[in-house]
Specification:
Length: about 350
């Protein structure tokens, strides 16, 4: 399966099943909320911002690769999508992001305290959506445990991101530990969870967990690169620098740059968001190239892709292998010119 084929396939799944997924999301929120709930109204506002709905569609695609009708995975896809959006609501608040897909974020529109409440509620709604799955109790219990475990993993990763800022010289191992929680969990859940629901052998589920973990790291590193060297759809280029985030680029730079350059970057990262200038961002982009931090990030992306897609067990599951490769292509498309230039 090529990237274009997967994109077409996801579009078909989106056209056929996204209305069902959204209907289920809305139904659970309405049925599990008091009448005239402000939380329900905020949830509708947030979900109406749109998005690719990748976490909703991935379980359906995995199911098809394993010979299971996608219809059966609609509730699981809806639960994954609700969980993902819960993290976005909290993430926007914690990062200070004011705009998401052209609309004010929840905390900007409704206030910080209410954004916390909505994000919390969405975690619980995700679990309640999962209860709608048409399967035996044992399988539903296993998926519920997986959803809860991955939720905790994501929260731990998010917390590690803040702790990274307090380290004078964070290591790449510190960075990976953060990303493998914050980002990888939201890919492991829909991919490995769908395989578990479909009755795939335990070793296949385990391999998919590992592959999704590597894809999560790959996705986060490309996101780090995209923020500084391409259009990420935010207010301006270099938002992560303004927020003081510790990216793969930053970690490598702090370990390899000259002392004066390291001190300069730490000063920028510790500054108030509005105090970071366009010149600071341009200088960081140049410095990351000169020290080799950008090349390190691109090399790590390629390494993670190989780890994600080339596990020997997938030789017996060509449709899964093709799906993983196409997912990697989709994730990396925004920075493909950089990858091509570095090859």
């Amino acid at each position: 399966m090529q990237m274009s084929e997967l994109l077409t396939h996801l579009d078909n799944l989106r056209e056929t099943h996204l209305p069902q997924i959204r209907s289920l999301l809305d139904a659970v929120v309405a049925e599990e909320s008091p009448e005239d709930s402000s939380l329900a109204k905020m949830c509708t506002y947030h979900m109406d911002t749109g998005g690719k709905r990748l976490r909703a569609l991935l379980p359906l695609a995995v199911g098809e690769a394993l010979g299971v009708e996608p219809e059966k995975l609609v509730p699981f896809g809806a639960a994954c999508e609700m969980l993902h959006n819960a993290t976005l609501v909290h993430d926007d608040l914690q990062d200070g992001d004011r705009v998401r897909r052209g609309k004010p974020t929840i905390w900007v529109e409704f206030g910080e305290a209410r954004a916390i409440n909505l994000g919390d509620a969405m975690f619980y709604w995700a679990l309640l959506i999962l209860m709608r799955m048409d399967c035996d109790i044992e399988r539903r219990e296993a998926l519920s445990k997986r959803l809860l475990s991955e939720s905790l993993r994501v929260i731990d990763g998010q917390d590690r991101e803040f702790l990274l800022k307090d380290l004078k010289t964070p290591t790449i191992e510190d960075y990976f530990a953060m990303v493998e929680g914050k980002t990888s969990g939201l890919f492991a859940l829909p991919v490995a969870g769908a395989a578990e629901f479909c009755g795939a052998p335990a070793e296949v589920v385990k391999a998919l967990e590992a592959s999704a973990g590597h894809l999560g790291v790959l996705f986060q590193i490309q996101d780090d690169v995209l923020d500084l060297y391409a259009d990420k759809g935010r207010e301006h280029v270099g938002t992560d620098i303004c927020e003081g985030k510790i990216s793969a680029l930053v970690v490598h730079f702090l370990a390899n740059a000259a002392a004066a350059e390291r001190d300069w970057l730490r000063g920028v990262l510790e500054a108030e968001r509005d105090a970071v200038s366009h010149d600071d961002i341009d200088r960081a982009a140049r410095a990351f190239r000169e020290v080799g931090s950008l090349q390190f990030a691109l090399d790590e992306i390629e390494r993670r892709r190989a780890l994600a897609c080339d596990a020997p067990i997938f030789a017996d599951y060509p449709d899964l292998k093709a799906l993983l490769n196409a997912m990697a292509d989709i994730f990396l498309e925004p920075i493909s010119p950089l990858l091509d230039a570095s090859a």
